[in-house]
Amino acid sequence: MAVTLTTAAAQRVRQHLEKRGSGEGLRFGVKSSGCTGFGYVVDFADEVGENDHVFLTDGIKVIVDDESLTHVDGTSIDFRKEGFSESFKFNNPNVINACGCGESFSTE
Question: Of 4, 24, 97, 108, which is least packed with CB atoms within 10 Å of its CB?
Answer without folding.
Answer: 108
